[in-house]
Every structure is written in C-alpha cells, then in structure tokens.
Q: What sequence folds into this?
C-alpha cells in the first residue's frame, strides 16, 4: 500500500500510481495552476504533465511513477519546487556509429535489421521497456515478440532516457540525454524513430477528471488491470478508436463508441492490396459487435458535464460536418476516452535540422527520400515521424532505414520488398485519414470558456482576443496568452493552437513544435555537460 | 509568413512600422496626442525582439549621460502607465541588485554608482551580509554590490497587448515595407502588396530597422545582437529582485563579436525564473550551440546554487537591436526627414519605450520633452563605422 493524502491505496504489481488511484475511484490528483480546477490523468504516457502528485517535496507524473509501498504521496500544489532533487543517477559519454532513438515498431525493426547484419546499435528509449506506445499495453509475459530485438547482444539498450538537446555535425551528431542516466552521445548515424503522440481536439469540459485520451484508457483497461466501473465512452475520430473500444469494453460495464467519421469503405481492388490492414480492421469491427458496444457513426461529443469529475456528456449527430444541436442527447457516463488521431513527435528531427513538410492541418512530418534519409547527412527517420501510418508502415520503414544506414557503413544489403511495403502502407494510411479525419467544423464546438492550454489554464476566449488584436502566428498568441508555456510546452495544445491561428496556411504546421530543450532537464544536468571546444553552430 | 487579413488604408497621417514595444508605445503616444496612426508589422504583432525580452525597466545598467537621462524620464512614464494598465502587465517594482565577485568588480560598481547618483539615481551600496538578507539563495561568494530600488519589471508582451487594446489600435500584420519614397509633404510607402501615403513614418522595426532604412535608400547601422535565455519550471518565489553580476555592464558595452556571458537571474509573476544572459553578433541565426546553453547554465548555477535542482522547461533566442555606439537611434532620417527612426535600444528597449515614444512625438508635432534629443539623432551615426 502507498498513501495518497493519508489514505491507504492498494495496488497490483506493475501498476502506475495513476492507475492504482484510478482503481480506487480517485481521479483528481491536483488543482490546475490558475483556475484551480480538479485535474487528473489525461494522456497516460507522460506528455501532458497533468497527473502531478507530490512525492516527498517533488512533483512527479503519476502515470510514470510505478506504485510501491514506501510512497507517501499528496495532491500536488505546485509544478516545481527547489527542494526536489530528481536527476540522472549516472552519466556517460559515448561515441558510436549508429544510434536508434525510439524502441517502438520502427526502432525495433531497424535494430533487428542492423544487428542481423552484424552492426552494433545504441538503442535509446524514453520508456522503461521496449515496444513504444503501440505495444505499451503488452509488457512482461505478454511482451510483443518484436521487443526481443532490444535484447540482441549487439544492442546497447538504454531505457528511461530522453534526448533533451541535439546538435547535427559532420563529425558526429550529438545527442544529450537525461532521465535514468545522463548520456552525451556522438553518433555517426542517427535513426529518428520517436513515434507520435495522440492528438485531441478540445471541447467544453474535456479537462474534467475522468476524461482521458484513448491511449490512456487503453492502458488502464489492458495492462494496468483497472476495472472501469459504470459506463465508458470512446469518442473522436480515426482508426485508433477501434482497438481502444475493444479494450475498454472488456473493462467497463457498458461501452459506447462515438465516431465522427464513417466506417471505412474500400473498393475491391483496395481490399486486395492491403490484406494485413484490412483483416486487422475487420477483426476489430466484429469484436466490437460481439461485445455489445453501442456504435454511433457521424456523431460528436459536444460537452462533458460534471462538478468535480466527469458525470455525463452531450452528443449530437453531424449533418454535413456540423453538429445538429437540436438533436443533442445527454448520456450519463463515467469514463470518456477521446482521440482525434496522432501527431508525430518532431523534436529530435527539428533539433537536428531536418526539413519538414506539410502533413495534416495539425502537424508537419519529417521529409525523407525513398531510402528514409532526411535532409541532414547521416540522419534517417522511420515510422510516425515521416507521417502517421501505424505499425505496419513503421516496421517497413525501419527496415529500409536500417539498410540505408548499413549501406552507409559499407555493408552490402539485400534487396527486398520493404520499399514496396512502405509505399503501400503510406497509401493505406492516406485512405484511412481521408475517411476518418476530425470533423472540419470542430471550432464551432468551442465556447469562450473552453480550456485550450491545460497547463496554463488558457481558455479559447483569451486566444480569440489575441487573434482579434491582430496576432497572426502561434508565437505571438503564446506570448499574449501563455498558451503553450507550461510544462508540456505545447505538446497538448500546440497542434490545436496552430489550427486556430493559421487555418489557411500552406506551411508545415509547426506551431509550437520547435523546442531546443526537448524535455524538462535539471539546470545542474545542463551545467554538468561537457563543453566541446569545436562547436558546430547548429543548422545554418 | 503571416498572411495579412486586414485591408490597409491608402492614406494616413503617421505610419508606424513594427508592432513590438517601441512601435506599440509610439502608436499609443501618438493616438493619445490626437494623431491618426496606422500600425503595421512584417509579421505578427510582438513577433520580434519584444517577446524575447525580460521586461527590464532598469536604471542600474545605464551609463551616466544621455542614456541614463532618457531612462530616468522613461521609468517615470512607466510608473504612470503601470498605474493605469494595472496588474494586466505584471508590473513589479522589485528593485535591481548588482553583485560583485571580486574587489575589482566592486570598485567598478562603486564608481558607476557614484556617477549615477550624481545624475539623480537613488541607489546605494550593500555589503555581502546585506545581500544575503535581500537574496538568501544567492551564492555567498560575493564581496558586495549595489541595490537600485528604482529598477522594475514588466511582462513586455502583455504590455504591448494592453497598450493596443486601450487605444484600440489595430495591427496590420504580414505587411513588409519594400520601399519608402519622398513625395510632396510626406512619404509613399510600398509594401509587398499595397501602397500607402502618409505624412510621417516611424521606423520601429527593432533588429530589422536596418531593412526599413535600406527601403528608404539609407542605412542606420542597427543590427541584431543575439541573446539566449533559459526558463525554469514555475516555482514559489525564490528570487525577489532582478539580480545580475557586475560584469554584465562590461558585456553590454562591449563591441566584441564572440559570445559573452554574464549571469542575470530574474523571477516572473507567473512563477518561472529567467536565466541569462549571452551577447554576440551572429546575424539572425536562431539556434545556438549546445555548449552555449551549458555556459549559460554554469553561470546561473554559480550565481544561484539553489537553482541547480530546478528543471529547465525551455530556452529561446532574442535579437537585441544594437546600434554602433550603444545609444538608441531616435530622430529624423538624415536624407528623408519625414521618416523618424526609433530603434537601436539593444537590451533596454522595454524600459526606454515610453520616453522613445514621446521623443518621436516631439519630432512630429514639436511637443516639449524634458531631455535633449540631440545625442540620439541618427545624423550622429553618419561618420561612425556600421556593422
């Protein structure tokens, strides 16, 4: 048992503090910075910084803190405090030939390809176990087979580290990492396989405890063993809703699926081209049917209601992409999982100077050639960072990228069908996005009080006021309102702000995505970094 | 590039170019004085250096002479402005503390203080024991310093927003000036798209003021002096004053092009602590070497060891508009007298904005001002070497 605000909390081995608290019905962990609203877990993977709890004078993310018996926790009343002292336990300087950043499907398949050729790989992973986000819910005995690639003898696997700064250089790209250890890596080749994060469009009440991303709900239901008492709803748009609805339906008493898109409709020819993806998709549809999930298509959540926690939602059908408020219904629910797709994590690519191209309305993607090389010599990218496309695209691109790196090291690589697989996977991703993108009139759901920036409690009204004053880019709206200035540094609100500010821009939607400091890092750890006498002055 | 969505008028009395603190202050002062103003920016509003500013309203770092005179006047104007604009701009009369590590630095601080006091600055020396009371988290490795109660701080972006809102000034964004030509009784301004005739134009384009001067066929030698800030996570107030090392003064006055660091630490009303500073001439390159981030961090930790456990959330670059002689450039262009330059404030723009605005007004409508505008005139730069 650990304690939270002096209450004893039981937990199962392997649960996070966030999951254990949720299992006891405790969903509010703290109050928000300025409006003092109840907040709890939202993204479940450490990106949103909402789930802070106080651990012995330190504010930590409950979703990234394993539950253990000695913990004495309290609701967090601050964001940071000078008495804290978390920091890397050790530090090391490494010079290597190949570094793979990210141990999801792209990073693992690249690692497997490289080690099969006899090439050593330094594998950096933000998570504590390989599999990335896709296989996060399968850990321990249930670990996905692809994760074995991290255990190969030629792999130097470093879990629990994040790159906080990166600098490209012709004499070896520099990656500075923090987390469980401090690493100063110089690497001739770098493979960016940093994946994506979920993307959610705000609506009134979305900040209430009990509303989480679809991924967070999937984790609670699947690997964290939390029973979701009462009625759960999985809502939003995009194919990710399906596996999440399946997982949630096993953990909740009753489940709704509310999808603003429509069921995937493909021609016969297309069905023949994508057998893997189609069978996956059909598998989910039939699983939902047989578990009695209430599915509504072309419906949208208008509002979440509740005094301190989620109690109900208002939903409405979409007529020509617009919510028909006259037909709105109120449904009492206990859990809401929302998702509108994914946006790639571009930090590392941007800090290495890689060119970005237009992706969706809400994000850009790293530009790569058919060999998966970015615009920077020696830097390749694979998986979601080159465009959202799921696990199959990621694995295929990982293979191609690995072969390119191997060729760069002088190895002869087999010709395979990997590049064709990449092309097919990208095409399928495009079809899926076209059929299931978020509703185009999403802005109409916002009210002046709708929170846009959760970290700094910035409501839509403040943003509209900044826009009315003449602000025409994200940076100036950020300066005027504080939107994006919190601990998550725009990871949650950035894509939304970009879409609000520049609805017609043709430029890559970068918004707030350029972060020199890519993850919060202790001042001491920056100060303890070696100063190199030959500086490369960054991208010119 | 920002897409312009507003219709630009074809004529106006005064066109102000640049919607940062200087441009907004000039526009506001002119509107308050009854002038008809149009405010444009090549990008969005506060898209340039203002957003990277710490919001310094300081007397402590001003060299005795015209700069200090301008600052004394400007800070009085700020106090009046702050009383009116209220909490919205996070105005804090927190005071500035300059600290010396060596006896040599302390002598320099004492000399500067003596000369500043002759000019009317109210400030005094403090011992290292007094410093420890004022700032408990500061390093104990200090020999003494000086306290300037008149130093204040403001949130510069909020200040711009408040001024524009108060005076209902719209910003025409995405309007880049291509050419400025004389015409009878005024100027013709050509933008990338569109044209406007005005009686007067004000070049408040900050670090980009050189481009606007070029558009008028001249040059004013204002260029970017790059700086970098580290920002901590928000914490309960730990730092009560604006604090900086004595070698900051040398760094600001230096003409050296390689990067100079000097520790500057300042808390903000929102709880974050800003750690600086660096100065270098590196054009408009926004990314700095990782080693420079490390140097900034080391300086900050050395000055305030208690900060070392705080997490740094982000870091950003700003381009100070530097002039060749470290004095602002305020006054009519030597060739096109209807073009009034208002730039070159380097790291002091926020504090000097209201006085700059009144000086610009003086050049347009003859309004009496309490300082001599002579030292700031652009004509003084004609013979100086430009960067």
A:
């Amino acid at each position: 048992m650990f304690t939270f605000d002096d209450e004893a909390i039981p937990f199962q081995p392997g649960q996070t503090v966030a999951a254990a608290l949720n299992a006891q019905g405790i969903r509010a962990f703290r109050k928000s910075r300025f409006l003092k609203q109840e907040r709890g877990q939202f993204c479940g993977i450490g990106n949103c910084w909402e789930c802070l709890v106080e651990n012995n004078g330190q504010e930590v993310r409950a979703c990234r803190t394993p539950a253990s018996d000695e913990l004495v926790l309290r609701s967090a009343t601050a964001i940071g405090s000078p008495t804290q002292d978390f920091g890397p336990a050790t530090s090391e300087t490494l010079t290597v030939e190949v570094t793979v950043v990210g141990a999801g499907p792209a990073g693992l398949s690249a690692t497997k390809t490289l080690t099969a050729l006899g090439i050593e790989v330094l594998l950096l992973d933000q998570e504590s176990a390989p599999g990335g986000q896709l296989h996060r819910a399968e850990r321990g005995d249930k670990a996905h087979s692809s994760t074995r690639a991290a255990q190969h003898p030629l792999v130097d696997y470093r879990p629990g580290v994040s790159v906080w700064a990166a600098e490209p250089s012709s004499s070896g790209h520099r990656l500075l990492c923090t987390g469980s250890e401090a690493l100063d890596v110089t690497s001739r080749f770098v493979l960016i396989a940093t994946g994506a994060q979920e993307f959610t469009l705000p609506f009134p009440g979305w900040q209430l405890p009990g509303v989480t991303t679809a991924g967070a709900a999937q984790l609670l239901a699947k690997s964290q063993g939390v029973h979701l008492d009462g009625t759960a709803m999985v809502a939003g748009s995009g194919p990710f809703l399906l596996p999440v609805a399946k997982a949630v339906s096993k953990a909740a008493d009753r489940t709704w699926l509310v999808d603003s898109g429509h069921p995937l409709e493909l021609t016969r020819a297309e069905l023949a081209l994508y057998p893997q993806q189609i069978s996956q998709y059909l598998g989910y549809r039939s699983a939902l049917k047989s578990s009695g999930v209430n599915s509504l298509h072309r419906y949208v959540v208008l509002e979440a209601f509740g005094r301190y926690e989620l109690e109900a939602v208002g939903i409405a059908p979409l007529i020509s992409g617009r919510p028909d408020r006259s037909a709105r219904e109120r449904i009492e629910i206990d859990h809401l999982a929302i998702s509108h797709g994914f946006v790639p994590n571009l930090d590392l690519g941007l800090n290495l100077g890689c060119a970005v191209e237009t992706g969706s309305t809400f994000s850009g993607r790293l530009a790569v050639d058919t060999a998966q090389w970015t615009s920077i010599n020696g830097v390749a990218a694979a998986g979601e960072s080159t465009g959202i496309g799921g696990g199959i695209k990621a694995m295929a691109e990982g293979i191609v990228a690995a072969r390119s790196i191997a060729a760069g090291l002088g190895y002869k690589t087999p010709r395979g069908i990997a590049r064709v697989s990449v092309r097919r996977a990208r095409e399928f991703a495009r079809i899926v996005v076209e059929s299931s993108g978020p509703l185009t009139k999403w802005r109409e759901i916002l009210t002046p009080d709708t929170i846009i920036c959760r970290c700094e409690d910035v409501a839509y009204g403040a943003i509209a006021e900044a826009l009315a004053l003449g602000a025409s880019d994200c940076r100036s709206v950020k300066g005027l309102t504080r939107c994006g200035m919190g601990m998550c540094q725009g990871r949650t609100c950035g894509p939304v702000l970009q879409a609000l500010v520049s609805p017609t821009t043709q430029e890559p939607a970068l918004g707030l995505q350029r972060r020199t400091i890519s993850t919060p890092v202790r001042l001491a750890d920056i100060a303890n970094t070696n100063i190199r006498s030959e500086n490369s002055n960054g991208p010119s | 590039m920002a897409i312009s969505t507003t219709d630009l008028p074809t004529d106006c009395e005064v066109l102000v170019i640049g919607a940062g603190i200087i441009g907004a202050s000039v526009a506001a002062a002119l509107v308050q004085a009854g002038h008809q103003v149009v405010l444009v920016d090549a990008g969005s509003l506060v898209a340039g250096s203002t957003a990277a500013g710490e919001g310094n309203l300081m007397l402590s770092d001003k060299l005795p002479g015209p700069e200090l005179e301008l600052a004394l006047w400007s800070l009085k104007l700020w106090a009046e402005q702050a009383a009116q604009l209220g909490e919205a701009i996070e105005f804090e009369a927190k005071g500035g503390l300059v600290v010396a590590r060596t006896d040599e630095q302390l002598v320099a601080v004492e000399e500067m203080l003596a000369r500043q006091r002759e000019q009317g600055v109210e400030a005094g020396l403090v011992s290292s024991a007094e410093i420890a009371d004022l700032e408990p988290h500061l390093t104990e490795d200090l020999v003494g310093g000086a306290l300037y109660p008149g130093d204040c701080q403001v949130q510069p972006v909020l200040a711009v927003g408040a001024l524009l809102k108060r005076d209902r000034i719209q910003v025409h964004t995405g309007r880049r000036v291509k050419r400025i030509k004389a015409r009878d009784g005024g100027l013709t301004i050509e933008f990338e798209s569109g044209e406007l005739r005005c009686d007067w134009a004000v070049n408040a384009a900050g670090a980009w003021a050189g481009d606007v001067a070029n558009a008028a066929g001249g040059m004013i030698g204002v260029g970017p002096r790059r700086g970098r800030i580290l920002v901590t996570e928000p914490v309960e107030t730990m730092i009560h004053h604006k604090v900086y090392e004595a070698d900051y003064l040398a760094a600001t006055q230096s003409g050296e092009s390689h990067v100079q660091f000097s520790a500057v630490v300042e808390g903000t009303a929102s709880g974050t602590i800003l750690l600086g500073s660096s100065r270098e001439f590196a054009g408009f390159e926004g990314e700095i070497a990782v080693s420079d981030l490390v140097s900034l961090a080391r300086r900050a930790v050395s000055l305030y060891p208690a900060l070392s456990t705080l997490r740094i959330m982000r870091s950003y670059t700003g381009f100070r508009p530097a002039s060749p002689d470290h004095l602002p450039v305020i006054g009519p262009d030597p060739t096109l007298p209807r073009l009034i330059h208002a730039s070159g404030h380097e790291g002091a723009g926020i504090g000097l904005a209201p006085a700059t605005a009144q000086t610009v007004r003086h050049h347009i409508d003859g309004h009496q001002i309490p300082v001599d505008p002579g030292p700031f005139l652009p004509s003084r730069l004609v013979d100086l070497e430009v960067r």
